[in-house]
């Protein structure tokens, strides 16, 4: 059920009902501008990942700065974006099941929709859905470039799958998906460079083998917030799929030489109990902030440590300085932005302490 907005435009930040998902608009816009400026000299395009923001509003802000379109992971996310006017969407994932594929093919009537595959059976199913809908769908071959999750082996296996796609009257070979997700959070620059160096090498080799078979790659996609500069400088990738750069989170901040973006996303929480000495309890626990990548940080309050979470409560320890007041509002920096956003129906956009806008998180909960 869509929840009522926790704020109204013009309201002061401290009046926002909590827990609420807060967007610092100045920081968000700076991040969007920075990524556009960083990629411009490389010639590599941004296809921003909407699995992070789940919002047609933010997608349009990114495309206004030169992004060629959006990535998503689920058909439901693609639907929310396409219905929101986003014209070019890549499902950078495998889609399995006739119902999902029928929905995907239906979207191809109102937007350019592409999808990934790593198995000939998947290709056959996409082909059947495209034929039934009377559309032609671009399909990218996903290769395993080192993440060990999805993807056919680079080289001859990938080429064979690409040839199967290219031979179909209802599909079009769209290129390669080569994304090394776990490399984004390897802590040192040397570790990230080694991982992406391998990804670039196997991707380059596969692109060349495809070329030898007469198959060009319109898209060679991959790269995330933690490594995008490496893929962009490779001369192999044509599109970068970063998503978290718009918001950032505590886990990216733990990287040595972290990405050059500002923290713009916060969970606003209220101190709801001061019953114990040296402890403050806020109304933001597991249901308000994701802890899969570590506990949140308390913004601009170094003496407060978010020590533990339960369903509805976050326990802060007062380790230095003044304890927060009962009823005081605190900004929390989530450990992982993507699943935190998925807990909310609304972004509360603030600028200089005032609510400026409310944006629905249209693809919230789109798991299918």
Automatic annotation (TrEMBL):
- Taxonomic lineage from the root: Bacteria, Pseudomonadati, Pseudomonadota, Alphaproteobacteria, Acetobacterales
- Tell me the keywords, alphabetical order: Lyase
Note the CDD domains from the entry. PLPDE_III_LS_D-TA
The family classification in the record reads: Belongs to the DSD1 family.
Q: Where is the signal peptide?
A: none
A Pfam family this chain is assigned to: D-ser_dehydrat
GO MF terms, alphabetically ordered: D-serine ammonia-lyase activity
| InterPro entries per the UniProt record, alphabetical | Ala_racemase_N, D-amino_acid_metab_enzyme, D-ser_dehydrat-like_dom, D-ser_dehydrat-like_sf, PLP-binding_barrel
Q: Does the keyword Lyase apply?
A: yes
Q: What is this protein called?
A: DSD1 family PLP-dependent enzyme
The record places domain D-serine dehydratase-like at 264-351
An annotated GO BP: D-serine catabolic process
């Amino acid at each position: 059920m869509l929840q009522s907005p926790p704020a109204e435009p013009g309201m002061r930040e401290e009046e926002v009902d909590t827990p609420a998902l807060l967007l610092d608009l100045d920081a968000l816009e700076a991040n969007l501008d920075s990524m556009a400026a960083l990629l411009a000299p490389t010639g590599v395009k941004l296809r921003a990942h909407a699995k992070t923001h789940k919002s047609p509003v933010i997608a349009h802000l990114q495309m206004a700065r030169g992004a060629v379109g959006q990535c998503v992971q689920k058909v439901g996310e693609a639907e929310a974006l396409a219905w929101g006017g986003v014209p070019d969407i890549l499902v950078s994932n495998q889609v399995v099941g006739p119902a999902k594929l029928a929905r995907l093919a239906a979207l191809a009537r109102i937007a350019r929709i592409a999808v990934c595959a790593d198995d000939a059976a998947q290709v056959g199913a996409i082909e059947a859905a495209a034929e039934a809908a009377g559309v032609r769908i671009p399909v990218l071959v996903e290769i395993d470039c080192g993440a060990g999750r999805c993807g056919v082996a680079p080289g001859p296996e990938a080429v064979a799958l690409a040839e199967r796609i290219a031979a179909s009257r209802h599909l079009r070979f769209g290129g390669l998906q080569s994304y090394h997700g776990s490399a984004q959070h390897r802590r040192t620059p040397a570790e990230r460079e080694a991982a992406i160096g391998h990804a670039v090498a196997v991707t380059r080799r596969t692109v060349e083998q495809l070329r030898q078979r007469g198959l060009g790659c319109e898209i060679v996609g991959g790269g995330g917030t933690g490594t995008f500069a490496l893929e962009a400088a490779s001369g192999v990738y044509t599109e970068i799929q970063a998503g978290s750069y718009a918001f950032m989170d505590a886990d990216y901040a733990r990287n040595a030489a972290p990405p050059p973006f500002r923290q713009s996303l916060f969970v606003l929480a209220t101190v709801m109990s001061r019953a114990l000495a040296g402890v403050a309890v806020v109304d933001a626990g597991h249901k308000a902030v994701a802890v899969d990548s570590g506990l949140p940080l308390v913004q601009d309050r170094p003496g407060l440590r978010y020590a533990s979470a339960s369903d509805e409560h976050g326990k802060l320890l007062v380790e230095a300085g003044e304890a927060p007041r009962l009823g005081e509002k605190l900004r929390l920096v989530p450990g992982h932005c993507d699943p935190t956003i998925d807990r909310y129906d609304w972004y509360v956009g603030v600028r200089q302490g005032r609510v400026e806008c409310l944006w629905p998180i249209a693809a919230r909960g789109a798991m299918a």
